[in-house]
Amino acid sequence: MEMKYPIGKFQFDGEITNSVTKDWINEIEELPRSLRDAVKDLDNEQLDTPYRSEGWTVRQVIHHLADSHMNAYIRFKLALTEEEPVIKPYDEAKWAELSDYKLPIDISLSLLEALHKRWTNLLRSLSPSDMEKIFIHPDSGEVSVGKNIGIYAWHGRHHLAHIISLCNRQGW
User: Fold this and answer.
1) Which helix (H) or strand (E) holds 44?
2) Do the Cβ atoms of 44 and 158 come closer than 8 Å?
3) Residue 7 in contact with residue 94, Cβ under 8 Å?
4) How much is the pLDDT for 1?
5) How many other C-beta atoms lie within 10 A of the C-beta of residue 158?
6) Running DSSP on this structure, what letter comes out for residue 86?
7) How far apart are CA 21 and CA 55, in angstroms?
8) Which residues make beta-bridge pairs with 86?
């Protein structure tokens, strides 16, 4: 459980306040820089090392973050512009097997930097009523914009912890 969820699963039972979402947005903003710092000294062999047995490689984690966060950004925009849209899930494990997951990581690191600038700009512009808007996930049900900010702040920390814990265990 610790290697798969090094920071635990997402949990938040408190009230989603302006202060809480501001902190989450700051975490989302910081992720590309933290991710780049975590992998800056890794060579290709290290990038192609799984973070746990039967887990993704560091390279796959980075490309997954780009895919996942692009999907999240679109889900936020759908929730903000449509009435309770039903979003389309995707098979992230199958996506991780596609050829673009073998590309150099700088492609996804640069994508994340640009995406997170747009994303955090959008998130900082939201009103309290925007935070209450929802989308419907076929597996998870109703998800509010406010809660989804927390989910993706956690998601970035979760995968960053995979990479950092692997580096620490390997002495890199």
Assistant:
1) helix 44-47
2) no
3) no
4) 54
5) 20
6) B
7) 30
8) 136
In one letter, which amino acid is 77? K
In this structure, what DSSP letter does residue 99 have? G
Tell me the C-alpha distance between 103 and 93, whole Å.
17
| Nearest one of 14, 96, 39 to 23, comparing CA atoms | 14
Measured CA distances, 48 to 60, 95, 102, 105, 150 (Å) = 8, 16, 9, 11, 29
User: Tens digit of pLDDT per residue, the chain (172 long)?
Assistant: 588 999 999 999 899 999 999 999 999 999 999 999 999 999 999 999 999 998 999 999 999 999 999 999 999 999 999 999 999 999 999 999 999 999 999 999 999 999 999 999 999 999 999 999 999 999 999 999 999 999 999 999 999 999 999 999 999 9
The angle subtended at Cα 144 by Cα 111 and Cα 126, nearest 5°, is 65
Indicate the angle between helix axes 18-39 and 145-170, nearest 10 degrees.
Answer: 30
Find the Cα–Cα–Cα–Cα dihedral 117, 135, 1, 43, rounded to 10°. -30
Q: How many residues does the chain have?
A: 172
87 backbone dihedrals φ, ψ, rounded to 5°: -90, 160
Spatial CA neighbour of 166 closest among 52, 37, 33, 65: 52
